[in-house]
Amino acid sequence: GAVVSQHPSRVICKSGTSVKIECRSLDFQATTMFWYRQFPKQSLMLMATSNEGSKATYEQGVEKDKFLINHASLTLSTLTVTSAHPEDSSFYICSAPQGSNSPLHFGNGTRLTVT
Amino acid sequence: RKEVEQDPGPFNVPEGATVAFNCTYSNSASQSFFWYRQDCRKEPKLLMSVYSSGNEDGRFTAQLNRASQYISLLIRDSKLSDSATYLCVLSGGKLIFGQGTELSVKP
């Protein structure tokens, strides 16, 4: 069964609104979670690393004020896309390692469409 | 040069065929290697880790060549259900994903 749960799986919103995406680790604690974005026919691009109890680490070119990350507990990380624009439309996926040097488990992804 | 390079395909093969994908990487410090499978509009799912000595899981065989900096995935006796995009993934502090190779298995 799924070890990482992501919600919602699909969201359509209007330009200028904000969207919150939740990522939960099931049955294990994740001090670190990763947020990726994937555009059609492209590879997953790491946006940021969410750290429980401290600030997220953002990759170069990712606006931290636009993509707000909150790692509220050892099982929950949220990504808020603020003031969404059509170019933010993409597939957003979270992931968490279940242990050190273990492969990542991915959430089922959120398909965001901004109209 | 990209950190991870894969032939995007698509690879169109008949059922029962053997197909191989290669993936080259530029960072010799990469520590762990994985193959993930991603179905259309879905999240990636781990297919198998890749070990230095090579490893096999049923119809799937993964190889790692550190000297030449590439990994490979061999699929034998292809099934229709093998149709997907196969992602080469490296770890060296953070995960780096390849663009993916699209496989389409036809009846």
Largest sheet, strands/sense/barrel of chain A: 7 strands, mixed
What is the string of SSEs of chain B from the N terminus onward? EEEEEEEEEEE
Query: What Rg of chain A is obtained from the alpha carbons, in whole angstroms?
Result: 13 Å
Helix content of chain A: under 10%
CA-based shape of chain B: globular
> Rounded to an integer, what's the Rg of chain B over CA atoms?
13 Å
Q: Which two chains have the most extensive interface, and how many residues on each?
A: A-B, 21 and 21 residues
Q: Structural class, judged by helices and strands of chain A?
A: mainly beta
Distance between the termini of chain B: 37 Å
Taking pLDDT < 50 over at least 5 consecutive residues as the criterion, the unreliable ranges of chain B are: none
Number of helices of chain A: 0
Helical stretch tally of chain B: 0
SSE pattern of chain A, N- to C-terminal: EEEEEEEEEEE
Give the overall pLDDT of chain A as a whole number: 91
Looking at how many chains there are and whether they match, the oligomeric state comes to: heterodimer
Mean pLDDT of chain B: 91
Distance between the termini of chain A: 34 Å
How many beta strands in the DSSP annotation of chain A? 11
Strand content of chain B: over 45%
Low-confidence stretches of chain A: none
